[in-house]
Request: fold
Amino acid sequence: MSTPEQLPPLSEGYQDEFGSIDPEVYQAARKIWPVAVSFGEFALHDRSLVSNLMMRAAANVSKAMATGKNIKYLNSYLLTTFKRLVVREREQTLPRSYPLSEAPEAVEDVVADLDRKILAREIFVHLNNQERTTVHLWMMSYTDEQIAQLLDLNPATVRQRISRLITRLRKTFANT
Reply:
């Protein structure tokens, strides 16, 4: 994962190609960088673009602050601005051949969907191989009995594993 040091260095009156960046906004960008990198790389699969979009988001937030916009939660506002830029960039790179009925309704829906996928991926990383196999089979619509037979387990054990994962997912998604 990228570290905050990978953002360009900040000097007094920092200016980049997107405009002036307020030092307070830049420090907020350094704080949210690990989350931003995770989101940006998951959505775009292009690490070099993530830093570019973060600096653009920081410049946009700095402009908003300079025009007098009252930003109560700077980190959250900056992360939301960054995520919107990532989604717009992703929309521009998606193939135009998908049917309109499958097109995302709004940027907020796409951001929420990506956030859920990132959380689910992080949860799955923490599962052991048996749990991961159980969940994959369950997601492929195998019954508890079929999964138990394939994995040489008791059906009650399969139900317990699935129940624990669902509980873990609900707790995680409730906190977002």
Observations:
- Helices lie at 23-44, 47-66, 74-93, 107-125, 129-139, 144-151, 155-174.
- Residues 23-44 form the longest helix (22 residues).
- The radius of gyration is 21 Å.
